[in-house]
Design a protein that fits this description.
It is a multi-pass membrane protein. The chain is 83% helix and 0% strand. It is an all-alpha fold and 258 residues long. It has one domain: MetI-like fold (Orthogonal Bundle).
Amino acid sequence: MSLEWIIKILQNNWPMFLRGAGMTLLISIIGTLIGTLIGLIVGVVRTIPVPEKGGKKGLLKTINMILSAYIEFFRGTPMIVQAMVIYYGSAAAFGIDIDRIAAGLFIVSINTGAYMSEIVRGGILSVDRGQFEAAQAIGMNHFQTMINVVLPQVIRNILPATGNEFVINIKDTSVLNVISVSELFFQTKTISGNNFRYFETFFITCIIYFIMTFTITRILRAIEKKLDGPENYIIAGNQMQVETTEDIAKKINGSVGA
């Protein structure tokens, strides 16, 4: 490895590295957000209690079967194969010409949604059953219970897993180079093909990926700590009592002094 070549490659190609990193972050952020939204919706639907009889039972079972098939398919196949099938397959089978970036966003979003739906479902099931029963006792239906009682807890609990999925997406966007999305790995291949210095070029890319994932990880940990709040809490009632006692003492001292 030559340090001089690394510096030279950076000086000559930094705009391409920057564009590639920007595209990687764009697809990862949007894909993770949409995928998390898909996961929340699928997770909530899959936890709807199925009645013992009636037409609603058959409908819910059918929906659950479709959602289970979606989850198993996208969790059980590589993203690189999904990209080939969705982008090239849609053009060959249906004559649909999808924009490469739109296809990349779609692939990352639905893939993330499949993983996040199971994470959300696990988070919902981890909430104490008594909270569901209490919400139902005051007249809430399933969706009201989810929105007002369960999901606020679930979102906090799944935040580490969501951050982990975001970091995975930053790295996995590299597979989108097979459909010519100009993300970081695609740009790196172009640069290395021009200068034939593969080791130095991909070493730079390795460092860029590390900087992105390390930074995102630290930001997410800071958000988690912020949501957790301070380690030591002051009970509001006690604090109010202390302030009241101090005020009374000041008044008494003032009266005595007068």
